[in-house]
Give the backbone structure.
Amino acid sequence: MEYDDDLKRIVAFHGHICPGVAYGYRVAREAIKQLGRKAKDEELVAIVENDSCAVDAIQVLTGCTFGKGNLIHRDYGKQVYTFYSRATGEGIRFSIDFDYPETPEEKAAWERFHAGEKTEEVMSRIRSRKARKIQAILSASPEEVMKIRHVTMPVPPEAQIYPGVRCAICGEKVMEPRARVKGGKIICIPCSEG
């Protein structure tokens, strides 16, 4: 299968193609299409409800990153991604809802793989299944891949830059609001936990 330049950039960043990358690619493209453009700074915010491969695709295509403070992780284990404009609070929530029809052979190979079997036969079936699933995700309509709902969000404050303070135990710098005081000394979280 031939990939467009956006998907090639995502695969180069992530390291491989997989169904999670395909989901993230589809979600990010749809978000940009509906919201107008990718983030140059913090004007577009993404809230991701998992830490799957899809999040790498979202970072590459939308410009939302942890470092800029416009990629917010909520560890709910859900394939749900919400994007909104910081200027208006208007956004779009994408919930992956894709049914990939597995053959009985694919299902059996998947069960064997999860049980720890890594024979060439099982791995070949897994690779084949993965390739077909990726193709199905990439060729389906947006409505077949995800539920799309418009939402309004309270706008969080922009990312803040805090001064660093030195931990009295390990000597490493820690962001001031994350520092703890123990025995009258400023220490980092790992040192405060022992």
Q: What stands out?
A: The CA atoms of residues 167 and 187 lie 4 Å apart. Residues 5-98+140-152 form a domain with the 60s Ribosomal Protein L30; Chain: A; fold (CATH 3.30.1330.130). The longest strand covers residues 90-96.
